[in-house]
Amino acid sequence: MPTLEEQLRVTALYRHPEHSIAYDYLSSFTYPWEALDGLADFIRALGATLPAEEYDCPAPDIWVAKTATVAPSAYLGAPLIICDGAEIRHCAFIRGSAIVGAGAVVGNSTELKNCILFDGVQVPHFNYIGDAVLGYKSHMGAGAVTSNVKSDKTKVAIRYGEESIATERKKCGAMLGDFVEVGCHSVLNPGTVIGCHSNIYPLSSVRGFVPEGHIFKSATQVVIKREK
User: Fold this and answer.
1) What is the pLDDT of residues 31-45, one digit of tens each?
2) What is the 3-state composition of the chain as percent helix, strand, coil, each rounded to the nearest 5?
3) Is the pTM of this model over 0.85?
4) Counting CB atoms within 10 angstroms of each CB, which of 35, 83, 101, 116 has the fewest?
């Protein structure tokens, strides 16, 4: 059985390096939340290297793939990269320090801030994604949000049973592995990490670590997924 530290590593949660232009940057850290502090600078540096024949630059430090679709009502804040074929829908609010992967969907009234969305991520309806990393083809149901600051404003730790790993961050949202499904109107509390291929029931309040290949039904009922 891998240790908690091993299960929380970038390489354990994100196994598709070909599906994020940020993967080389992300994989230079042990844990994904460590990448959040320097994300804005990384986006500016990477954006400056993107080919002009493939990306428009509608404002300083904003790069939008020519194949992406951006609704006129969407707000785009810098620094920001929107990749090939992504869809930014009506009234999306991207505050900045964000990478939206290829084919990703950012929907109506969804807000992004200081986050990496891998390719194929869907946050299509009334979602808040802050100080977070969402893995390849992960999906947030309508109204599901990441909470990134504790009510007492203390630093966030990742907890699993009696174990705990300090992030040394006051702001730390959710880290979703590849192919994670989060049900509608769920709240992922600060420091939530969900392993690859895991599912979260609708209306859940999740805190700490959910291992790979599990179903979170409640805080006292987390079960292994059955093979189909």
Assistant:
1) 999 999 999 999 999
2) 10, 40, 50
3) yes
4) 35
